[in-house]
Amino acid sequence: MQTPVPLTYASQRLTLRYFQYGDPSLPPLILIHGTRDHARSWDQTADALIDRYCVYAPDLRGHGDSEWAVGGDYSIIDYALDIHALGEHIGREPYVVVGHSLGGGVALQYAGAFPEKVSRLITIEGLGGLGWSDRAPKPAHTRMRRWVESMRALETREPHFYSTIEDATERMIAANRRLSPELARHLTVEGTRQTEHGLAWKFDNFTRAGSPYEFNMEDARDLWNQIRCPILILWGDESWGRRNYDLDTSPFHDVEVVKIAGAGHWVQHDQFGVFISHVNRFLNA
Length: 285
Known about the structure:
34% of the residues lie in helices and 20% in strands.
């Protein structure tokens, strides 16, 4: 497996890390990870694509080796801004964009705001955390109070420390029993840093916070309706995301939805062979 080149770019006064895999003369493809994940979780996917693409995988703000946002600003629009900044930094639009979970929602935001910059889009278990229900939004005063309380609580939340990489790997496996021991260890090695108290996960605890401002379905539909490139939506049939199976895909112009058997939320890890076959088919169409 190829070791990627670590690079940096700037967005909103933050220095953010990204990794480049493969030959920069090939067409560009951006991989966007999910919440409390990191860019190197894409290593296997990138390795399968570098024969045709130059792959770029950023650590989102507050994740991996990117800087943490002062004040804990981690909304989906902040992440979309960072991806736009990355695209301008690379300067090779339009991009194929692949996003997992939160990263899938970010990809849709980016493509909706800048449809000319995305040639194909794959979202894995990710539509922005919005769901597709028409449930009534909570009153603004309720949302604001809950957000303030959650932010104050996060100020006192202490990171968990691990004595050894094996201990941290056990926690990774507990989060996803489908991971092979080798992959779980790789994700853990790349996703932790050594501190004076022991190993700690690289992500900022404030990435757990939400926002008091709901991104409503009317806004979502308007953004998604702007996307003109082909879209592939992948779901794991054993994931909590299966509640979104019966999608109203009417906002999209060219979309395919695929359920992958035997996969949970991390489809690309749980059923990699099936996952990459769908990716290749979609990209080669």
